[in-house]
Structure formats: structure tokens, C-alpha cells
Amino acid sequence: MTDFNPANPLIVQGDHTVLVEVDSPRYEAARNELIRFAELVKSPEHIHTYRITPLSIWNARAAAIPASTIIDALCEFSKYDVPEHVLIEIHDFASRFGRLKLRRHDKGLLLSADSDALAEEIAHTPAIGELLQHRLSETEFQIRVLDRGKIKQELIKAGFPAEDLAGYVEGERIDFAVRATTSSGAAFSFRPYQQQAADAFYANGDDRGGAGVIVLPCGAGKTIVGISCMTQLQTSTLILTTNVTAIRQWKQELMDKTTLSEEEIGEYSGNKKEIRRITIATYQIMTYRPDKEGDFPHLVLFDDRNWGLIIYDEVHMLPAPVFQVTAGLQARRRLGLTATLVREDGKEEDVFALIGPKKVDVPWKEMEQQGWIAKARCCEIRIPLPEDLRMTYAVANKRKKFRIASENPSKQKLIREIMARHKGKQILLIGMYIDQLKDAAKGLNIPLITGSTSQKRRDSLYGDFKDGRIKALAVSKVANFAVDLPDAAVAIQISGTFGSRQEEAQRLGRILRPKSGENQAFFYSLVTRDTVEQDFALKRQLFLCEQGYEYAIRSGGAF
Fold it and tell me: Are 79 and 8 in contact (CB under 8 A)?
């Protein structure tokens, strides 16, 4: 007879989906367990859907979460008995992690399987078999060092992620220390979770460490975690990030909190080509090429110095050409930093194979409860489409419909009302469409930063905003990533990038730096009711719902 516990919030289904009742008193505890080993699929008002996948289980295993813990959590919070075959398959997924191991070999690398049958299976898988040079025994194969990344990609596609124990080159030695007092005179030390994340990556220098991804909320100090990892390794480091503003922020943090001098830190961007023991470059310059058929001339930076560590900031933004080069960088330690592993191109498996598995993933709400990031209230305000635009909207294609709805002129009045409600706060106005932002910025008499704004002007405006000389700033997508504006307390999203979950996370992240006083932030998303914009807005909210945030839905004028 099937057990039934109505107080529990989970229904585990035979297709590996998990339904979660949001109104259950045990919802929060169940969700905190579930997000460690399952992926959010959709989150309407009352029932959220998660899916257990091989990759979600492998990431859990890489974070040292055993299959028994996963199964115990499902059984503890499930209304009904968990289907037996789901429990068996979780064991199967978990057991596949590490059944194949990569180690050093005097003539290259050694790939070993834990059984003759598995060795035969991979040998007869065409994409894998062609990478195996010599069979050394029933369960061991020699492979080329240059194929280390490629074979890990193929093995994960085949359902058997390899545990890479082949180790790393040490790289050029560099000696520096962390300051107990910053250059501004403030006391400095790593927060406990920052040190724990760095320790999980470093793993005492063991071959099981040195490659992986650390997932922390925006505002939690991922740059500081990177500095902690660098401190433990004491090796020449290449840092890749999203824009020149982020380069400057990394450089400022390194000089402020370590004994590294300005001369030891190089900037590699469109304007500067400094290659130093610590070098910070943008993804944009790395993927530049003169024409569509030409080579990427700046990718040689990966070989221009004996790097001991490569840091991929905002790793969910990693472009395809850098992925390709990263396949050949497996002998270098690799650290990915991000607030969300959601990739719009679906390449989460490549991040796992080439950068490394997820080492740490701290729930946003847990960080909020501990006071490390600001509390956030999320509110979607729905307004109607004006009568004079309804026919234009009705006959437009879907992409044009989205733009018409996003640029709804009625949003301008609502922006003023929200800003008046939060007068005195540091406010960011965020949007996708430049003309819309220009109109809003002009009407409100506030400065605007877009992709065409010079770096000098950007630095000046960001500085004025951080210092409180300006209270409101309009920004396009260029401010989505790696921009440190600690006092921003209100974000008004007037248009988003279709259904991008990671963008929603990044935009909320602009206002999550901890604040004095009530430590409260406000995130507003303005959406045109009964249009495709409303449909896409629901998709964007998925990630934030997974992290425990709830969106209040309000009508214009009643928020």
C-alpha cells in the first residue's frame, strides 16, 4: 500500500520530474534540498516543477553529495512513495561519476575504466574510440595530452563523466599576500563562505581540486573568492571577464586587498595590451577577429605566459571560441565564477567538462538570511497596451510584438511614480531598447550608459553614482555583468531580453550588495499585460523563483 503524507510538498514522478507545492509549510526546507540536485523547469503560482537529470546529479556528486543524501531528501519530503525506478536511476547516475578516471602517464595520459565492460563500451563509441591511442590493458588506454579536454566532452555526452586526476602545471610563481587592512584603512578578511568556496576549489592542492565552478549570488563577492583562490595558489593568473569596467574593478580589488602592485597587474583590452604576471582581459577582445573567416589573433594570450590559473568571470557568458581554446588548457587550473549556471545556449555540459564541475552553490535566500546580501522585494507591474497601439500589435510578427509591448509608452509615467516612491534611494533604470532608454533618461534628466558610451564616460558616471553625486542612472545591457554599484537599492526593469533567466538574475544582482540600515532592495519589472512580453517575463522569473524569491504581481497605479 502506498504511503501518503499530505503535509509534504513533493510529488516525485516517474519521468524524473518533481512537483513542488509552494503553499506547503515544508516548501522552503524541501526547496533548499531540491536545488542541490535538481533543475527548475517552470514555476507558476502554486506548483513548481523540477527535473532530475544526469548533469544535476553529477554536479551534486562533484560537490560531495552522495546518492543516499539525495534519496533521503526525496523520501523525506515526498507526499507519496518515490517511484522505485527513479531511486535506482539516481543511484545509476551518481555511480557513473568517476567510473572513468584520467591520470598522468609517462607517454601522455591514462584513461582507466572500473570494469572490462565499460572499457569495451567506450572503445566502441566512435567519437571516443578515435581519441584512444593505445590499449595498455583490459581497462586502460593511453590518450594524447592535447585530447584531454575533447575526450572529457565526448565522455560526458556518452553519459560517463571522467574524474580528471591528471593534475596541473604549477605555472610561473608569484608571491603576494592578503592585506589585513585595505588601502583605505578598513579591516579586511575573507568571509567564512568565501574562504570555504576557495578551499573547496583548492582542495589542499590535491588533483581533485583546481578545476570547477563556484556559484554565488551577485553581491556576495565572487571577485574576493577569486582572490582567495589566487592567494592559495601563488601563481601567474589570467582573468577573463565581461568588459573593461570589470577589468578595472578586478584591478582595484587586487590592489586594495593584496600586496600586488599596479605594475604587476596588466590590462588586455581594446585599448591596452599589457601581459603581466596577473593579466585581466575581456571576452570581447579574445573573440575579436578582422573578418568572419579569419583567425582570432588574441587567443594567443593563452600561450603568451606560463599561467598557473585561469579565472573565467561570469562563466555562463563564456563564448564558443574560448570554449574551444579551453579544451586545450586542461593542464592549467581553471576557476569559473557565476551567479547562475543557466546558459541560454544550453552548453552547461561543456562548462562541466571543460571548466569543471560545480564546487559550491549557496542559495541566495540563505545568504540574505545571514545578512551577506540585501533583502529584495520583487514586483512585476502589469499595465495595458494603449488603444492606439493595439491594432499595430495585433498584425505584427512575434519579435515585433515583443518590441511594441516592451516600449509601451505608458511605462514612462509609471517609472516616475516608482522613483517618487523611493526618492533619496540610489536607483537604476535598466532596459534592452536604446531608444526607450534615451526617452526615459531625457524625460527624467538622468544620465545614460549604453554600449556606445566611452569607457572614460562610463567610469565617470559609475564613480558619481557610487559616491552619491547622482541618485539615478539609466543603463542598457552593458551594466548587466560585473559592475559594482554597492549602494544601488532600487532597480526598475523597463524591458528585458525575451526570456533570459540569467539576465533576470544579473539585473536583480545589481542591487543586492549589503546595505546599512534595513538592508532592503526593490526590484520592479514593468510588463505590458496580455502580450508576449508577459509570457517572456514569466520565463525570466524562473531562476529567481528557484532561489526562493516571490514576485508580487500588481496593476499599474496599484503597486
Answer: yes
